[in-house]
Amino acid sequence: MVPLPVMPLPEQVVADYQTLRLSLKAHPMAFLRKSLRQQGYAAAQDLATARNHQRVKLAGLVLVRQRPGSAKGVCFITLEDETGTMNLVVWPKVMEEFRKTIMQARLLAVEGRVQREVEIVHVVAERLIDRTDALLRLAPEGFAPAFSHADEVVRPVQGSARSPQTGHPRDARIVPKSRDFH
User: Fold this and answer.
1) Which residue numbers delimit the OB domain (predicted)?
2) Could you write out the three-class secondary structure of the chain?
3) pLDDT in tens, 58-95
């Protein structure tokens, strides 16, 4: 038997997200929370006590992006962190300014104002930042396994799902998929 080093918990969570798109061990945001708090970012649970029109900074994994035809160009985004979910409202002007960030980010940071109506809390986004790079720091090695010469695909089978451009599934970065529909 060869003793293998213990995989750190953040890397275990990354591996879970790579293969299952979820993890029962922890949430990726839990490993980033200390740094986010130092930068002034609140957690989803903090919205329960936020005042109406209060300025907030939040960050979370993108779960859903919606831009219904009946919403006159308004985009709705649901973010998730280790404490819960956050609902964002993105007005058309902000959507136009931050479109690339909104459509590509897997970890999204937002600055905006709380909009509260009784128990329903939204954050009206004013600024959005793609922080997907922070997820990549959870597994600095990137899970690049050592390949032997036998692992190389010289002539892939015609029509197969695997091609030289797509690489091996183990090389996937932690980029949790969002469940978008329009």
Assistant:
1) 56-125
2) CCCCCCCCHHHHHHHHHHHHCCCCCCCHHHHHHHHHHHCCCECHHHHHHCCCCCEEEEEEEEEEEECCHHHCCCEEEEEEECCEEEEEEECHHHHHHCHHHHHHCCEEEEEEEEEEECCEEEEEEEEEEECHHHHHCCCCCCCCCCCCHHHCCCCCCCCCCCCCCCCCHHHCCCCCCCCCEC
3) 999 999 999 988 889 999 999 999 999 999 999 999 99
Fold exhibited by the domain 41-134: OB fold (Dihydrolipoamide Acetyltransferase, E2P) (2.40.50)
Confidence of residue 181 (pLDDT cuts 50, 70, 90): low
| One-letter identity of residue 107 | L
pLDDT tens string 13-72: 888 877 887 888 999 999 999 999 999 999 999 999 999 999 999 999 999 999 988 889
| Both tokens assigned to 64 | 């859903």
